[in-house]
């Protein structure tokens, strides 16, 4: 660590770092060794209480808020300037609370080190609605155990037992409402995380020798697929709007919301083949395939996969996200509607890593403090942004 970086870190702790110094610190943090060192310094410098069992959330958030305010003028001087502050904020919360995992280099990302968890819905809605083959509906929510032959739930996840003697397909549906999130374990051992406002159709049991097919009717799902070699070579297939994703065994994310003009397929690990009519596209890790509904066009790009899948770990990870896209995400999670009075604001970009456990007011204050919006009003389930 050179003298300049030492000085900047001291200023960061003292809430005196400038926007330019934060940029230099962010660049320095792109080394994994530097990141580890910085985390240890954070552990020593704040937010651990005397018992060393909890962190002082208020102290961390107050520090970050003050940094945001001090950086606000720099934001106004350069309209779309990235705020290094938000990256540092994320690291601070990782180090102190163990809530987030943030990577700085794509090649350093290790999904196996991330332990998925189910976030309690802040709006108090049911975790999910299970629809059985006969049309019966079961409300699944925390604290309510549910069990019938081959199926059980603790209100946070739904688990199916493997029935190798199944002779016919019996489909179930899992619907996750706005403001909720749920985990599903299929009969073959495949794990699925469903995001807010999503619906999945799947069989109670798969038939031996046939493809293991599920249907993402709408919404967003993360799949951790049980390998084909454990199922006599049977492929796993995800069907979505006429497209088929074929899998041998891998981890990937599919985002396909009804109100959005594009769908996204992002590969984390392994290989997948996306088929659409007479076209086939092979994806490798960090590849994302974007399908434009109106144009019927496909586009492949490389992405930071953590930004695409952080939702399942209870994190909003916004990197160069336009405000109009961010409020769509927030609307689904908090079950609210937004009225953007100045539509030009919708094109403004925001960089931030925030917890899905936060109240909507805290999220809005972070966006407001960045200088992107001037004010907001909350009227029951309507949020007006000026």
TrEMBL record:
The chain crosses the membrane at residues 85-104. Residues 316-385 form the Protein FecR C-terminal domain. Residues 175-272 form the FecR protein domain. Keywords: Membrane, Transmembrane, Transmembrane helix. It holds the Pfam family FecR_C. PANTHER family: PERIPLASMIC SIGNAL SENSOR AND SIGMA FACTOR ACTIVATOR FECR-RELATED, PROTEIN FECR. This is FecR family protein.
